[in-house]
């Protein structure tokens, strides 16, 4: 039995007329009659009563019709879904992100993407820039939002998607908390909460180098794995920390965020993905460029 046999039977059952059903199916009536007879023979039951007055469904035919309609609907749905997968309209997109992306970049990008592709399931994983490289390489992630720069590699692609200044997070009541801006050398004697080098080597070195250029070696009191932990320690009065400006979106009433004067410290976030033809769902994400609020899809990358 093939799906076309079910379609032939359903058409006859709906029309209750072989000639009209044949016209609807764009086949000749004798061929349709032969196919229905072959179907009945295969099933071993009579589905239709035929006489000079017309065609009628038998009791078995009425039951078979309901099942046939359901099978055809499921088959058509499977075809539609498979084609949608090829177009990247359904499926799964695995996205990694470093913790600061949660403040604005990640939710903004995902909102824009879901407006265009609501049936794509988004799988989100917090990661680090170093780990994200491994996860994108081994295809655990389709794409990751990471800190840039990362060392160039022929098998990876990156694109800068946002940039923000670095602020100094200090406890409320700290001597620098009410200042409009702070020079970097003013924190030379402060206990610093710093991102751990094994977690984010580039970011760790960036901050240490900035302190060295300002004429001092930082007094690192605590090394942490994320910005949120750093802010938590600052809130507890355990030091000061360099944080991205977006950290202000995570309200912490016992922490003040002070601009840094003349330090020119900025953080760049980037999208990271594998080189080569991307899966359809990732291709749609890259074309849409949702970090730009998904305004206008661009040409394929």
Automatic annotation (TrEMBL):
Q: From the Swiss-Prot or TrEMBL record, give the protein name.
A: Transcriptional regulator, LysR family
Q: Which UniProt keywords apply?
A: DNA-binding, Transcription, Transcription regulation
Its Gene Ontology cellular component terms are: protein-DNA complex
Which Gene Ontology molecular function entries are recorded, alphabetically? DNA binding; DNA-binding transcription factor activity
Q: Which family does it belong to?
A: Belongs to the LysR transcriptional regulatory family.
Among InterPro entries, the record links this protein to: LysR_HTH_N, LysR_subst-bd, WH-like_DNA-bd_sf, WH_DNA-bd_sf
Q: Which organism is it from?
A: Geodermatophilus ruber
Boundaries of each HTH lysR-type domain copy? Answer: 1-58
Region forming the signal peptide: none
Q: Which PROSITE patterns match?
A: HTH_LYSR
């Amino acid at each position: 039995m093939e799906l076309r046999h079910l379609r032939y039977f359903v058409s006859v059952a709906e029309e209750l007329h072989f000639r009209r059903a044949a016209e609807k199916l764009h086949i000749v009536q004798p061929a349709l009659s032969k196919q229905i007879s072959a179907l009945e023979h295969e099933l071993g039951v009579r589905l239709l009563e035929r006489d000079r007055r017309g065609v009628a469904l038998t009791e078995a035919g009425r039951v078979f019709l309901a099942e046939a309609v359901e099978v055809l609907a499921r088959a058509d749905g499977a075809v539609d879904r498979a084609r949608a997968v090829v177009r990247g309209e359904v499926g799964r997109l695995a996205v990694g992100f470093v913790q600061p992306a949660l403040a604005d970049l990640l939710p903004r990008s995902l909102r824009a993407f879901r407006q265009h592709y609501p049936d794509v399931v988004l799988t989100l994983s917090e990661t680090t820039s170093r780990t994200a490289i491994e996860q994108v390489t081994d295809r655990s992630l389709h794409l990751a939002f990471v800190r840039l720069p990362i060392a160039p590699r022929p098998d990876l692609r990156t694109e800068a998607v946002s940039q923000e200044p670095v602020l100094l997070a200090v406890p409320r009541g700290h001597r620098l908390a009410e200042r409009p801006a702070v020079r970097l050398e003013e924190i030379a004697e402060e206990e610093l909460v710093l991102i751990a080098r094994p977690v984010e080597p580039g970011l760790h070195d960036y901050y240490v180098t900035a302190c060295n250029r300002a004429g001092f070696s930082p007094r690192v009191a605590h090394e942490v794995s994320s910005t949120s932990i750093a802010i938590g320690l600052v809130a507890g009065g355990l030091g000061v920390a360099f944080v991205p400006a977006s950290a202000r979106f995570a309200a912490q009433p016992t922490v003040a965020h002070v601009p840094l004067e003349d330090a020119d410290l900025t953080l760049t976030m980037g999208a990271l993905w594998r080189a080569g033809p991307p899966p359809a769902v990732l291709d749609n994400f890259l074309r849409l460029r949702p970090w730009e609020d998904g305004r206008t899809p661009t040409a394929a990358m």
